Amino acid sequence: MFFSAATEELDSYFPIRPECQADVPKTRFKARVGKTLSPRRWHAAFSEDGHLDIAGVLRRIQRGGIHPTVKGVVWEFLLGCFDPNSTFEERNEVRQKRSGKIITSPIISDDGQSIQDPSNSCSTPHDNGALSSDGTLDKRVIQWKLSLHQIGLDVVRTDRALVFYENEANQAKLWDVLAVYIWMDNDIGYVQGMNDICSPMVILLEHEADAFWCFERAMRRLRENFRSNASSMGVQTQLGTLAQIIKAIDPKLHQHLEELDGGEYLFAIRMLMVLFRREFSFVDGLYLWEVMWAMEYNPNIYSLYEKSSDPNSSSTHKNDEAKVNSKMLKQYGKFERKNVQTGWKDQRGALAVFLAASVLETKNKRLLKEAQGLDDVVQILGEITGNLDAKKALHEALKIHKKYLKAKKP
Fold first, then answer.
1. Which ranges are annotated Polar residues under compositional bias (predicted)?
2. Distance from CA of residue 216 to its chain's centroid?
3. Can you state the percent helix, strand and coil of the chain, rounding each to 5?
């Protein structure tokens, strides 16, 4: 039952509204026996007291993704919400600490006064000096409340082809998670596109608190892409890395793009900002993310995030292990493992950047032959929507990663 060859079986977990069927990309991913992480295999990966065989789980995910029935709980480990070396009891304690009260309890009352709850792990406006001496709201609270309007506009547009969001309670759940997140990460605040990253967590995880922490961990990787000011965008850092990669592995294509005034690679912004959500069907997008996260997995991710609990610190995977033995290496994803083995520490080069490079390489001949301007580049790359095979694209991304590391050797 869990491994029907028909993709309709998987699509049934995330039903599409009938009137939208013709407008959504075709799903290519299929759950396969012996490759996809099944519910049975997932539960068997735990020891009696709850320790998780993360190495075995990573191998299975990298071969065939995760079955929809266990995606959410597996993502919590991939994104660093929990330590695989913890026990069931220890993880329950973590869940208790991350109480759903941070989502469901109001931060301010209807009349704008601070609401204090000592059990609430999310700081209130009062805790952060949000109220001035006369009790009025400061700029931070005002900015937060102004952002809520934009969140409301984006929530009703998010994944609207899915039956899930016909329910206003589910829209409210997405709104809640985004609203609390931007209060905690007021440095960057809310930026369009965060809703696309958050939506799958809200769909996959029943409890708002679990969805929130899963999203918060995902944003640890992505938040700098959303930082912007009058002169620059955060995603430009990754675009710069993309330019370096193409220049190293395909100098002819890079030169051609530069001649078209496309050397800044701005045409790839959407791919990197929302991790290819728009290029794939919903099911294929989830498959792409989980395989990427499995390939990038670092066994130290949980401790790194817990040591730096402030979202403004932007903790990322740090390859600072002096020596990693072969047993420990098995607990790394294959992409991160290669980085550790080669000593490559450029954290701007996430797998998503190499995935974008693989997309460019698949269109190499057409770009060189047909692109006479940036509009042509955008049109050619736009044709990948619904026509990109996630598994093949990831395979090509790893090949490009290996080629790039070799080219960068002194």
1. 111-131
2. 10
3. 60, 5, 40
Helix axes 282-295, 71-78, angle to 10 degrees: 30
Largest CA distance in the chain: 67
The token duo for 328 is 């420990």
d(CA 304, CA 315): 7
CA 150 to chain centre: 21
- Name the phi and psi angles at 34, rounded to 5: 85, -5
Structure tokens at 121: 């792990």
Task: For each of the domains in the chain, give its residue range(s) and CATH number, in order of start.
Answer: 101-220 (1.10.8.270)
Distance CA 160, CA 199 (A): 11
**Residues in contact with 277: Cβ distance below 8 Å, sequence separation at least 6, in sequence order:** 196, 197, 285
Closest CA to 250 of 62, 399, 35, 391: 399
* Nearest-10 Cα torsion for 164, 168, 191, 361: 20
Residue 168 tokens read as 């206003």
State the CB neighbour count (10 A cutoff) for residue 375: 11
CA-to-CA dists, residue 383 to 91, 271, 363, 372, angstroms: 44, 13, 10, 17
Distance in angstroms (rounded) separating the CA atoms of residues 76 and 189? 23
111 to each of 125, 160, 367, how far by Cα in Å? Answer: 14, 33, 58
Tokens encoding 144 = 């937060």
pLDDT in tens, 247-272: 999 999 999 999 999 989 999 998 99
Residues of the chain with pLDDT under 50: 1-2, 4-6, 100-129, 315-321
For 13-49, write each residue's pLDDT tens digit.
Answer: 999 999 999 888 888 888 888 899 999 999 999 999 9
Long-range contacts of residues 191-194, Cβ cutoff 8 Å, at least 24 apart: 191/226, 191/228, 192/150, 192/154, 193/226, 193/273, 193/274, 194/219, 194/226
